[in-house]
Amino acid sequence: MGKKKCLFLILLMIFFLPYAALAGRVVPITEKPRPDYDALGIRAGAFTIKPKITLATEYNDNIYAQTDGRTSDWIFTLAPSVNIASDWSRHSIRFDVGAKSGIYSSESDENYIDGHALFNGSLDVTRDSYITGGFGFKRLHEDRGDPDAGAFWAQWDEPAVYYQNTGNLLFFQGLGRFDLTTGGGITNLDYRSVDLLDGTSQDQDGRDRNIYNVNARIAYNMHPDVAPFITTRYEWRKYDESDVERDSEGYRIGIGTGINLGGLMAADIYGGVMEQDYDHRDDISTFWYGMSVLWNPTNLTSIQATAETSVKETTVADASGIDAFDANLEVDHELLRNLLVGANAEYTYNDYKGEDISDKYYVIGPSVTYLWNRNLEAKIGYRYRTKHSNLSFREYTENRFTLSLTGSF
After folding, report:
1. Please, is 392 exposed, middle or buried when counting C-beta atoms within 10 Å of its C-beta (0-12, 13-18, 19+)?
2. What is the pLDDT of residues 253-262, one digit of tens each?
3. Alpha carbon of 175 to those of 4, 182, 219, 274: distances in Å?
4. How far apart, in whole angstroms, are the C-alpha atoms of residue 327 and residue 287?
5. How many domains does the chain have?
6. C-beta separation of 364 from 400 below 8 A
7. Which among 186, 233, 234 has a CA at the least distance from the CA of 209?
8. Cα angle: 334, vertex 402, 111; to 5 degrees
């Protein structure tokens, strides 16, 4: 289906979806309250502290995302975390701190340690207005075959490590039938040098950048369960090294609607245009459209779907950016009060502007979660991922099997 057809269908849905419905909040089956199995946490005055730790083992039959000569390995992970949230009647704050270490059975050079520390909060200004904001720090690594890494990852002797620092602020104001939301944010990405297979190292400073954005959305509450809106966003992408010549500015603007059908379905559907203007490279101008849908067809089943076009960054030498489309579908069903089954499917299409490269990623896999009690759960899952490309040497397929145990307090 072409982009023009997709946009046309989205606009039809925006203007012709029925909106006679009852009020109600929609939550997925995986998040609904289970008094017999939900961790109680630790009470500390006006705060609730929820520690958690996950132990997992994974088998990956292609850890280097290779087209040929696949290498398999077992990976053991340990992921402790602590969530601290306020229980105030007005205002709120939340802290989330955690880490994840991965240890490979044979290929020890692939071992990694990730971590994060996040804070967010909200301030109720009046009955019809509030301010939310947050900041955070993450230490992350790139998986082999990550699109942003370009062709570099095939030369690496270890995972690429980078740091992501974020901050955001949002203001909401109710104005009768209208709701105004406006805000902004910043993301800083700092990549560290990587050891190569030939014994040297590769400087990654050329990928360091800051991303700034401002955004606004105004919605009209034409019905308790239908709120058409206009949304816009402007973004600056600035690289630390001027000789990289990848700086750009871009915008997106569109119309859409929020929908809530009787507590059974909640959706945002939108469409418009977007453009990313590069200082020294080809610009990207295209349709912007997407959706986010949560539907509970029964009290035991949830279906969640998301889709959106975007412009992504790349390290491919002569490409300015990636004209991308991402879609995700997740189905969860409660077989028993303490037994959940699910399946996930993902699709990504990346078209590199300025280079004759187009990649498609397909991911699919089921999972089963068993809740032993409020403090212990087990999960088993399988994930199949394949990459198709117009350049055969970029293609690969991998299978991942995972078993995990999570303790919550």
Report:
1. exposed
2. 999 999 988 7
3. 35, 13, 10, 28
4. 16
5. 1
6. no
7. 186
8. 145
pTM above 0.85, yes or no: yes
| Residue that is written with structure tokens 């995986």 in the block | 30
- Domain residues for the domain of 226 are 3-408
Closest CA to 354 of 295, 284, 286: 284
Q: Write the single-letter amino acid at 225.
A: D
- Please report, for the domain that includes residue 92, its CATH number: 2.40.160
- How far is Cα 239 from Cα 278, in angstroms, rounded to an integer? 12
Predicted confidence band at 197 (pLDDT cuts at 50, 70, 90)?
confident
Contacts of 304 (CB under 8 A, 6+ apart): 28, 293, 294, 295, 328, 329, 330, 331, 332
CA distance 183 to 171: 6
The rounded distance, in Å, linking the Cα atoms of 235 and 252 is 9
| Amino acid at residue number 370 | Y
- Max distance between CA atoms of the chain, in angstroms, equals 66
